[in-house]
User: Which sequence fits this backbone?
């Protein structure tokens, strides 16, 4: 008789978004495009826009602070901190090091950054899960954060599929949200140029329609491999599916392709979409593509909508990273997840954001070109109250990017004002 394994998975989840956004319909009007193309054709309502004091480090830190604040877990429990991102702020120093410092995590901690386009955080999540299953964690938990700012050149076809944000997840034994089947995943990889960002560029380049085909082919490959690996899970038992969501419509294309493998017609797949996928798209429609964080934003959206009803049910998860690499795996919603998800107030960060005009957004983009070389202001930045040492954050502190010093070291600070709004 085999002893049942201690369940491992996502204990708690929280996200952060920039303070500002643009309406997709405003962008469509400015670009001379029918608004329905963006809102219905792509499934995008709002696009989160990062401000001058927000970057992948602050987004990641603020998501993790919210996670600790609401989950009741303490930073001292963390033995691994991994940040998945494709918007790194340095060729060498990982975002995870800044985050480790800003959160006050223990010195005895494995800290690193992972990159594979939008797949980076999934590599981190699966690695953390296996770290715990191996026994190397010695009872500690892992903090996995996905953080990104999705950017294309102004006026290009990719522009309505931008976004920004971060998702932080606590990975531990006996998780309160979802359990993962350790070692039971399906993989797919192929060397393609569907989407890339050369080292000197801030905006991504993309072969848009080809990227859609690559995503779908990789889904077929990863899902087929997952079915071959599945011991405890069977595809018909997937009550819901969460996909990587560069824009909402992509999830409906994905669902069609996945169900076609099961012999389901396109019409039937579309009929099942409203129940099986749509609840996972609420947050991304308000934020846009968040690259590495996208799949986990879908999961958070699903749990916010239906965690109680889904307790004990299996959810399929598809992670795609251009270039390309993909993985399909499944999660079981834990008993008690409904009440805990309500406590986490998963939708909270969407409240109180500020709408920008397209002109203001374009102005921010122009200013952002110099953000990595912007000198820290000699006095306290305007609009920032209560700036304190970044190494001693209080529970309500919100991290902000200030600029670089004389040696191009990035400097961060804390403000209280915004965090208070976010956890209200
Ligand atoms: P496009 O060529 O401007 O759009 O760019 P389109 O002409 O293909 O139209 C899009 C949809 O809107 C179509 O529907 C139209 O019919 C519809 P579909 O055929 O797809 O079902 N449409 C309308 N609907 C209602 N009313 C209207 C109307 N007009 C048109 N009036 C494209 C679209 C996605 C290519 C572009 O936005 C793009 O290049 N985006 C960036 C790349 C991307 O998101 N790729 C997704 C797969 S790759 C991926 O997910 C990885 C990624 O996240 C990066 C990473 O891994 O790091 C991007």
Assistant:
């Amino acid at each position: 008789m085999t002893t049942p394994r201690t369940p491992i998975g996502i204990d708690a989840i929280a996200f952060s978004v920039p303070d500002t956004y643009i309406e997709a319909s405003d962008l469509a009007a400015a670009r001379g495009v029918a608004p329905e193309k963006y809102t219905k054709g792509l499934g995008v309502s709002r696009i989160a826009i990062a401000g001058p004091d927000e970057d992948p480090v602050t987004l990641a830190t603020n998501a993790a602070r919210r996670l600790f604040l609401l989950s009741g877990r303490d930073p001292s429990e963390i033995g691994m901190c991994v940040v998945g991102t494709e918007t790194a702020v340095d060729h060498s120093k990982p975002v995870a090091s800044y985050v480790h410092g800003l959160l006050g995590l223990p010195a005895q901690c494995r800290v690193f950054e992972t990159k594979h386009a939008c797949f980076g955080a999934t590599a981190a999540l699966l690695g953390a899960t296996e770290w715990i299953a191996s026994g190397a964690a010695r009872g500690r938990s892992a903090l996995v954060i996905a953080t990104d700012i999705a950017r294309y050149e102004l006026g290009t076809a990719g522009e309505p599929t931008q976004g920004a944000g971060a998702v932080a997840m606590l990975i531990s034994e006996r998780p309160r949200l979802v359990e993962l089947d350790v070692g039971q995943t399906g993989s797919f990889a192929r060397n393609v140029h569907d989407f890339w960002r050369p080292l000197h560029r801030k905006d991504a380049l993309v072969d848009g329609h080809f990227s859609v085909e690559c995503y779908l082919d990789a889904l077929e490959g990863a899902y087929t491999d997952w079915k071959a690996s599945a011991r405890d899970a069977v595809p018909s038992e997937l009550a819901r599916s969460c996909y990587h969501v560069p824009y909402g419509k992509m999830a409906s294309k994905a669902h069609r392709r996945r169900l076609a493998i099961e012999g389901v017609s396109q019409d039937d797949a579309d009929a099942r979409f409203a129940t099986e996928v749509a609840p996972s798209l609420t947050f991304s429609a308000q934020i846009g593509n968040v690259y590495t964080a996208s799949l986990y934003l879908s999961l958070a959206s699903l749990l916010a909508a239906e965690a109680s009803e889904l307790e004990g049910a299996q959810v399929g998860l598809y992670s795609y990273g251009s270039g390309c690499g993909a993985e399909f795996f499944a999660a079981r919603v834990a008993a008690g997840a409904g009440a805990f998800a309500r406590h986490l107030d998963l939708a909270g960060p969407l409240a109180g954001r500020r709408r920008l005009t397209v002109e203001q957004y374009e102005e921010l983009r122009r200013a952002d070109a110099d953000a990595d070389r912007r000198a820290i202001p000699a006095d306290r930045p305007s609009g920032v109250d209560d700036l304190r040492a970044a190494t001693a954050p209080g529970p309500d502190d919100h991290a902000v990017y200030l600029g670089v010093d004389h040696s191009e070291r990035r400097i961060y600070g804390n403000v209280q004002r915004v965090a208070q709004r976010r956890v209200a």
The domain at 8-355 is CATH 3.40.47.10 (Peroxisomal Thiolase; Chain A, domain 1). The chain has two domains: 8-355, 373-422. The pocket of 3-hydroxy-3-methylglutaryl-coenzyme A is lined by residues 34, 36-37, 40-42, 86, 117-118, 157-158, 160-161, 194-195, 206, 208-209, 211-212, 215, 244, 246-247, 249-250, 289, 291, 320-322 (CB under 6 Å).
